[in-house]
Predict the 3D structure of the following.
Amino acid sequence: MNKSAVYSISYGLFVLTASQGDKDNGCIINTLIQQTSTPMQVSITVNKANLTHDMIKETGKFNVSVIDDTAPFELFSHFGMQSGKTAQKFGTPDSYKFMPHYSENGLIYLKAYTNAFMSGKVVREIDLGTHTMFIAELTDGEVLSKNPSMTYAKYHAEVKPKPKKPAKSGYVCKICGYIYEGEELPSDFVCPVCKHGASDFEKL
Ligand code: FE
């Protein structure tokens, strides 16, 4: 099988937010899909290693903010390349530029670099091993701008920083651009920046 075939699948990009106790958290996903319109149901699939995953499993609710095509790399690094288990993603000065607001369900959504948000209430969970798929009914939503949505392809082509000085030999993370220097990439290697595995690296 040519595993690169899956790179031809087109995706959007979204900030997924949840809350538990007095902590708000968020991460980046590319897995929001509308499944039905009556009732209005969506699915999201979330890595079990993410704090946001545990919050949704516990509370049964989330918001998704649809990232638009004006979003800078900073938004992706803030929400996607650090863990809420060790970093504060909200309530800090560097989070204000994303204009976090609360929706009616008490969860944060982003008003900056987004064109819509939706609130979901989980109605079913499917265990997929490394990830959980949550099926949810939408309880709220609003259009925030007319900007086109960011796509996974545009993120890779235009937003992600280009490697500056390619090493003589090494591997580059196709997700975030991190470079591993060395002849052989260990098969169990995990990107220290975005936590994707060796299969998401390519030889320089
Ligand atoms: Fe990476």
The longest helix spans residues 51-59. The first strand starts at residue 14 and ends at 20. Residues 173, 175-176, 178, 191, 193-194, 196 surround fe (iii) ion (CB under 6 Å).
